[in-house]
Design brief:
Radius of gyration of chain A: 13 Å
Largest interface: A-B, 21 and 25 residues
Largest sheet of chain B: 6 strands, mixed
Mean pLDDT of chain B: 96
Mean pLDDT of chain A: 95
Helix content of chain B: under 10%
Largest sheet of chain A: 7 strands, mixed
Order of helices and strands of chain B: EEEEEEEEE
Distance between the termini of chain B: 30 Å
Order of helices and strands of chain A: EEEEEEEEEEE
Helix content of chain A: under 10%
Oligomer: heterodimer
Strand content of chain B: 35-45%
Number of helices of chain A: 0
Radius of gyration of chain B: 13 Å
Number of strands of chain A: 11
Shape of chain B: globular
Amino acid sequence: EVQLVESGGGLVQPGGSLRLSCAASGFTFSNSDMHWVRQATGKGLEWVSAIGTAGDTYYLGSGKGRFTISRENAKNSLFLQMNSLRADDTAVYYCVRAGGSWELQEWGQGTLVTVSS
Amino acid sequence: QSVLTQPPSASGTPGQRVTISCSGSNSNIGSNYVYWYQHLPGTAPKLLIYRNNQRPSGVPGRFSGSKSGTSASLAISGLRSEDEADYYCAAWDDSLSDYFFGTGTKVTVL
C-alpha cells in the first residue's frame, strides 16, 4: 500500500522559513516523479513544485526563488524548503506521487503551514 | 489566477447525469493532457481521469472524461450521494511552464 506522510508544518512568522518532509513507502520512490500541491482554506488546489526521477525541478511562478524541492532516494524522502514565507503561503501542503504523464496518483493527508505574526 | 476555468457549482438528483466543463487555451488544454480530481473536504484528493479520458483502476465507470480543442469535460452518470465533492481539472501550461488546477466545481446531490 502506498503511503505518503508529510511533516514539518506549523506556525511561522512572515519572512521566516520552513522545511516540509514527506516519508514515502509502498512503492519504488526513486522511480517516481514527486510533487507538492497546496490548498489554502476556502480556496482551490494549487500546484507548487515537482521533482523528476533525474532530479529535474519545476516550480510555480510565485515560488520560484523562494521554494526548493529536493529528494533523498536512499531514505524514500521528499522535501520542500520554503523561505521568505508570506501570508498567502498559508495552506495545507500535500505530498503527491505522480505517474508517467504527471497524473497525480497518490496523495498524502497534508501538513498545515500557517504564516502569521 | 488559474488559466483553467470551471463553473463554480453543478447539481443533480440521484441517478442523473452531471457534466462539468473546463475551459483553457492552446497552451494548456489545447496541447497537453487533461486530468480530473475529486476532493472531499478533509480528505486527500483523488485522481479520477488522466490523459483526457483514462480511468485509473478502482474509479467507477460512471466517471468519464473528454477533450475537444481547448476545452474538456467530466461527466458523472448515475449520480450518487457520495459523489458530492469538489472537482478540479488540471493541465500543464506550455507558455507559463506551470501545472494548473482549474477553479474547481462543487457538485451537490439534491
